[in-house]
Amino acid sequence: MSTLVVVGAQWGDEGKGKVVDVLAADAQIVARFAGGNNAGHTLVVDGKQIVTHLVPSGCHYPGTLCVLGAGMVIDPDVFQAEVAELQSHGLLLRDELRVSLGAHLILPFHRVLDGLREDRASASDNQIGTTRRGVGPAYESKAARRGIRVRDLYEPARLRERLEQCKAALDPEFERFGSSIRVEVDDLVERGKRWGAWMERWVCDVGALCQTAIDSGHRLLFEGAQGAMLDLDHGTYPFVTSSSATAGGVCPGIGIGPTAIHRVWGITKAYTTRVGAGPFPTRLDGPQGKALRDAGHEYGATTGRPRDCGWLDLPALKYSARINGLTGLCVTKLDVLADLPEVEICVAYEDGLVPGTDDLGRVRPVLEKVPGWGDPDLARRLRAARSLAEVPAPVRGYLDFIADRVGVPIVLASVGPGRAQTISLAEPF
Ligand code: GDP
């Protein structure tokens, strides 16, 4: 088996960074296929925390190719800064990057527009809760067929034409906002030349690169961004991200076909979190939610925003397993639950409602108390566990319960932020 897709199975922030970092040890290529710098992966490398927003988590391994696919939107300023930071930590020094010619760019006017729209929405209490990084507006330009792609950086005439189209479409909107910002075509054409020159040695046909690698029997890991419940088509629309956050997004987002995908692993926390607006059936308000947030340090890696927290939502996870075609589940942050006096789990929704409908905002979770947790010694033993046999029995029972209810085997359990705090239960490739 040579290809593995790893996606967030919930609302994002499931600890993909750590899991992909661990799994990437066995991969020759790690590729991202969607999203932009609205994602934030926290890696702990030799005790140091590094947050990446665009470059896939495999950047820790010298020689592993880190690929940015066509389904992504790339802010060239952010990309430059991130590569410089990673290189200052001694990473990506062997020319391990590749960037799709088909990826779209987030330009400064996309960022400004994102912020202006969120401000207006917050004034009318209608916020989606975007990260204001210009991701949504860049995908809008793409869908409107006036987006600027990496390949346009090498075709100044086409770059100018696209920018003129953006100007015609967006300047009136800036005007309506009373903003003095305009799409500055000449300036962007000039900057485009510099961005193009900077990334030229990495740009290529990423689909062809990946297919050749697959045909040669190489191991490829495709890293999703955000989580399935934020998927543009199948998430809690309209409170979703503007791209495909499910495993199927790999195909258009890289340029390979579905038959090239061998395994799909979904990452879920042992509980649930959500940042931004939108339905969240198991959200805990009050002291219980705060206790979970504090125990899990649940603040966004990209924005620092506090995340809403709640119990694990099995109906949502089961839905996620279906829309992703999950073949394995990775459960992270088990140690966080072990710090709590009691643990509950959502086994169904009242009235038999199901995820994937607009009713998700009004469902009431059916909760069960999970037996055996709340022992002060549990967290210590769990954090020290390095094999399933060392995992305390109540936690094993919890994992079995999840696998049974969702119908997908547990392939990995994470019991702390460190790479060593990972219990592998199946071969990734
Ligand atoms: P991502 O975007 O899915 O990678 O999620 P985040 O970047 O928000 O990562 C979640 C945070 O949880 C990071 O600080 C990780 O170091 C941390 N983390 C990952 N797995 C575990 C775990 O099993 N236990 C604990 N305590 N922290 C973890």
Structural overview:
This protein has 429 residues and is an alpha/beta fold. The protein is built from 13 helices and 19 strands. The strands form 5 sheets. It has a 10-stranded mixed β-sheet, sandwiched between helices. Helix 3 crosses helix 4 (135-143) and helix 5 (156-176) crosses helix 6 (185-199). The chain folds into 3 domains: 3-100 and 201-264, 3-Layer(aba) Sandwich (Adenylosuccinate Synthetase, Chain A, domain 1); 105-198, Adenylosuccinate Synthetase, subunit A, domain 2, CATH 1.10.300; 267-424, Alpha-Beta Complex (Adenylosuccinate Synthetase, Chain A, domain 3). A hairpin with a 2-residue loop joins strand 3 and strand 4 (48-52). Helix content is 34%, strand content 19%. The mean pLDDT is 92.
Bound ligands: guanosine-5'-diphosphate
Structural class: alpha/beta
**At the first level of CATH, what is the class of the largest domain?**
Alpha Beta
Quick one: how many beta strands? 19
Q: Looking at this structure, what is the CATH superfamily of the largest domain?
A: Adenylosuccinate Synthetase, subunit A, domain 1
CATH topology of the largest domain: Adenylosuccinate Synthetase, Chain A, domain 1
Q: What's the overall geometry?
A: globular
The major β-sheet equals: 10 strands, mixed
Binned strand content = 15-25%
Separate helix tally: 13
- Rg over C-alpha atoms, rounded to the nearest angstrom: 21 Å
Mean pLDDT across residues: 92
Count of domains? 3
How are the strands of the largest sheet arranged? 9-7-5-2-10-1-11-15-18-19
**Helical content, roughly?**
25-40%
Low-confidence segments, given as residue ranges, are none
What is the annotated CATH architecture of the largest domain? Answer: 3-Layer(aba) Sandwich
Distance between the termini: 5 Å
